[in-house]
């Protein structure tokens, strides 16, 4: 059974990712920051670990096959602390633990933060720093850059491309579906892509990407 470690497992997107992975038969370990979140996480069938990216968090990573980072500062936290430094710590620990696969939930706009609303710029710049470290880490990576996240039910259809020439929204459900598909579709290896709601089934959209497939 493939073991997946999910950082940010109690976040709005992280919870959906955990549920999708458990339903698909993965052995899921989730990192949460508060003890009362452990019960919620473990009720889904995942195993919970208490910690955060600024402190101790590596216990659940031992023996894992894949790391998914769904942690983020949101719009009220410290982006440098979480989206940059914390995520880089997770990437570095993945290298140390020899975990070969890393999926990062980032954001559209990281490559051109000046084109986005000014209040988002610090968050996008911090996320881009982490993306760059991941791209240079030697890990087999997938960077998913969703548009504006919604809590609407997923439709299972998206628009995915290395760079979309428009902005828009995408449901957290469909982001979680994209994470699951990324673990199963080799075209997503060493690939970064934008993700918006669209009219193409998730798996088909991701198979249309031209990733670098490991030998």
TrEMBL record:
Protein name, per record: Epimerase
SUPFAM superfamilies referenced in this protein's UniProt entry, alphabetically: NAD(P)-binding Rossmann-fold domains
Domain NAD(P)-binding, residue spans: 8-184
One Pfam family of this chain: NAD_binding_10
Source organism superkingdom: Bacteria
InterPro entries (UniProt xref): NAD(P)-bd_dom, NAD(P)-bd_dom_sf
């Amino acid at each position: 059974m493939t073991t997946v470690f999910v950082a940010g497992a109690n976040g709005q997107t992280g919870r959906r990712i955990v549920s999708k992975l458990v339903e698909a038969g993965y052995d899921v370990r989730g990192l949460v920051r508060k003890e009362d979140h452990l019960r919620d996480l473990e009720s889904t069938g995942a195993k919970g670990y208490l910690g955060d990216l600024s402190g101790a968090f590596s216990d659940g990573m031992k023996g894992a096959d894949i790391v998914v980072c769904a942690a983020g500062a949101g719009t009220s936290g410290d982006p440098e602390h979480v989206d940059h430094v914390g995520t880089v710590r997770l990437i570095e620990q993945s290298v140390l633990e020899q975990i070969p696969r890393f999926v990062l939930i980032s954001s559209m706009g990281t490559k051109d933060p000046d084109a986005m609303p000014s209040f988002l710029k610090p968050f996008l710049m911090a996320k881009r720093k982490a993306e760059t470290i991941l791209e240079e880490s030697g890990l087999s990576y997938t960077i998913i850059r969703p548009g504006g996240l919604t809590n609407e039910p997923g439709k299972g259809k998206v628009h995915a491309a290395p760079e979309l020439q428009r902005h828009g929204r995408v449901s957290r459900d469909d982001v979680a579906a994209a994470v699951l598909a990324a673990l199963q579709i080799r075209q997503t290896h060493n690939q970064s892509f934008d993700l918006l709601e669209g009219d193409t089934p998730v798996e088909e959209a991701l198979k249309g990407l031209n990733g670098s497939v490991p030998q």
